[in-house]
Amino acid sequence: MIHADDGILSQEQRLMRDSCRSFVDDVVTPFIRSNWQREWDMSPGERLPGSILEGAEAIGVRTLGVPEEFGGIDLERETEVRTFALIAEEIARGDSGLADKLVQNWKVSIVIRQFAASHLQEKWFPRLLKDPKFLLAHCLTEPRGASDRWLPYNVPEASMHTKAVLDGDHWVINGRKQFISNGFDASLYVVYANTDPSVGMLQGTSSFLVPRETRGLTVTKCNETMGCRFMNNGELVFEDCRIPADHLLVKSTALASAGQYFRAGKIIQAAKNLGVGVACFERTADYVQNYVQGGRILIKHQAVALRLADMATRIEAVRSLVERASKAVDEAHPDADILCNMAKVYASEEIMKVATHALELHGGNGAMLEFGIEKLFRDAAIFLHMDATVDVSRMKIIKTMFPATAGKYAGPEN
Amino acid sequence: MKIVVAVKRVADPNVKVRALADSSGVDLANVKMTMNPFDEIAVEEAVRLKEAGRADEVVVVSIGSEKSAETLRTALAMGADRGILIRTEAVVEPLAVAKLLKAVAEAERPDIIITGKQAIDDDANQTGQMLSALLGWGQGTFASKLVVGDKAIEVTREIDGGLQTVSLQLPALVTADLRLNEPRYASLPNIMKAKKKPIDERTPADYGASIEPRLIVVRVHEPANRKAGIKVGSVGELVERLHREAGVL
C-alpha cells in the first residue's frame, strides 16, 4: 500500500509500526492462513493458541496504556491516540479479532489509570503486565439498549437497568451486561451501573472496578459472532455482587467522564477496520496479478483494475480521516467528538465496500472458507455494528454538532 | 567485556527492488529499508551475551546517512546500550567500512566485534574478514554457535563440509550466520526506552580513514525474466528435453 504518512510519523512510531508489521507477517498471518478452522472451534477458550498471545506479549502490544511507573510503556501522550491507531491497524491487518482482544486492554487501561485509586492501580497493573492471558473488559451494553438510548433520551426511564446501591462499605451491583468485548475471558472489568434512578443516564451512572472472581459475578455465555471471532464477546450477570466502596471509579457522571476512553475507542475502531481493508487490498492485489483468466492475468482486465483502484482510493480516504480525527483527539480539539465518530462510521462503510470488491475479484475462491477472503468480508461487516451501529454513530455526530436541537430530549417541543 | 556490533541499513529483503533506468545501481527511492538480517542476528547474539552476564556493554555502529540512525535505534531497542553513527552520504565499500570499524575498535577497545556475515544488498561478504586482518585479530566467520570464555571464544562455523569449531583468543572478530540465533522483535516498550539511549554522531574524517571508492560499478541489471513453462506430450519427450535442452540428464 501507499505509505505517504511516513514523514509525519515520529521515528518511534515508525519503528513500532514496523515491529508490529513484522510480527504480523511472520507469526499472525501464517497462523490465520493455515488454521482457518480454528475460528469455528466451539470452545471459545481454545480458539486462539496461547503462542499468539505470547508473541503479542513479546512485542509489548497487550499493555499499551499502562503507565510507565507500573512497568508499562511510556508513549508520547501528545500523540498517543495516533500511535494506538497505527498499532491497531497493523495487528488487525493480521487478524481483527486478535486486535480487538488487545486494544480492549489499552482502552480500559486508560480508564483505570485515570480514575482508579492508586492502591488499585498498584494492585492490578502489575498483574496485567505479568500474565500474557490477562485481559480487561468494559461493560456498558445491556440487553435492553446500548448507545441508542444515550441521547437524546437523557431521562430517568431510559437509564441502565444494572443498578448499584451502597450498603455500608460495599457497593452491591445487580443486573446484566451483554455484547462485552473480552467479556468471556477477561480478568478485570470496568462496569457501569445506575446509582441514581431519579435522573438521566448522564447524571446517574457510576463506574466500578470488578475483579472476575468477585462473588455474585457470573460469566454466562460467549456470544458467537460473524466476525472478529478470536475475540470472545461475553455476557455477564451480576447478582448481589458486592465490591468494596473504594472500587468506585467515577460517581454519577461516569459516562461523561469516560470521553477519553470513547474517543480513543472510536479511532482504534476505525484503525482496526482500516487494517482489515489493507489486508483485503494486499490479498486481492496479489491474486489479480497472478490469476489468469482469458489468457491474461486478472489485473489486465480493465473491470478488475478499476475495482482495485477503487479499493485503494477508499482505503486512503479512510486513512486520511483517521489521521485527522486522531490528531484532533490527541490535541483535545473541540471537534474531536464529531471527527472520531465520523472516522468510525466512514471507515466501517468504506471498508465494507473494499471487502466486497475483494470478494468479487476472487470469484469463486472468494466464497471459500479456506481462502480466507470471506473471513475478511465477515470481519469488515461486523464493524458496521460494533461499538455503536452506523446509524447511532451518525446520531452522535449530529447531536454533537447541534446540541441545542438534536442533542435535547426527544419529547414534545417547547 | 565489551562487544561492538556493526549494523547496516539495507533494502527490506521482502521488497522487490528494481535497477535504475541508467543501470547505475538499485532504485532505493521510496523503498522500505531495514536492518541487514545478518546484522540483526549479530545484535541478538551480543544482547544475549549481555543478558547472560557475559558482556557488560554492547555498542552498535552504523555507517551511512542520518536515516541509519533509525537502524541503530532498532538495535538499541533490541537491547544494545549505545550507538555510533558515522555519517556519510557516500557509498562506502567493504574495505573503507573495515578501516572505519578498525578506527572505532581502536577507540572503543572491545573484546569482541560481531558483524553479519554479509549484507544482503551487495552480498560482498568481505568486511568482517578485512577488519580482522587490519586489526590482526583472529576471526570466526559464518558463526552458528558462540561460546564465550574469559580469554577465548569458541566459534562453530558453517562450512561446506559441515561444521568446524575454532578457538580464538580475545579480542576476536565473529561474523554471524543465519543459524546463530533467531533475533527478537524490538518490543514497543523497548522502542520507547531506546529513545533515551545515546547515539554518538561522527564523520569518517573524525577517524581519519579514507572512504574513497576503489571499485567501479559497471552495470546493475535485473535478472532475466523466467521463461514460461511448456507442456510435453510424453515421458519420452520429457526425458529427451531434459537431456538435450536443460542438460540435466
TrEMBL record, chain A:
SUPFAM superfamilies listed in its UniProt record: Acyl-CoA dehydrogenase C-terminal domain-like, Acyl-CoA dehydrogenase NM domain-like
Keywords recorded for this protein, A-Z: FAD, Flavoprotein, Oxidoreductase
CC cofactor: FAD
Ranges for domain Acyl-CoA oxidase/dehydrogenase middle: 139-241
Record GO terms (molecular function): acyl-CoA dehydrogenase activity; flavin adenine dinucleotide binding
Domain of life: Bacteria
Domain Acyl-CoA dehydrogenase/oxidase C-terminal: 262-401
Residue ranges annotated for the Acyl-CoA dehydrogenase/oxidase N-terminal domain, each copy included: 10-130
InterPro entries: Acyl-CoA_Oxase/DH_mid-dom, Acyl-CoA_Oxase/DH_mid-dom_sf, AcylCo_DH-like_C, AcylCo_DH/oxidase_C, AcylCoA_DH/ox_N, AcylCoA_DH/ox_N_sf, AcylCoA_DH/oxidase_NM_dom_sf
Protein family according to the UniProt entry: Belongs to the acyl-CoA dehydrogenase family.
Protein name: Acyl-CoA dehydrogenase
Species: Shinella kummerowiae
Lineage of the species this protein comes from: Bacteria, Pseudomonadati, Pseudomonadota, Alphaproteobacteria, Hyphomicrobiales
From TrEMBL, chain B:
GO biological process: carboxylic acid catabolic process
Record keyword Nucleotide-binding present: no
Subunit structure: Heterodimer of an alpha and a beta subunit.
Domain Electron transfer flavoprotein alpha/beta-subunit N-terminal stretches: 23-211
Cofactor(s) the protein requires to work: AMP
Pfam families in alphabetical order: ETF
Protein's UniProt name: Electron transfer flavoprotein subunit beta
Family membership noted in the UniProt record: Belongs to the ETF beta-subunit/FixA family.
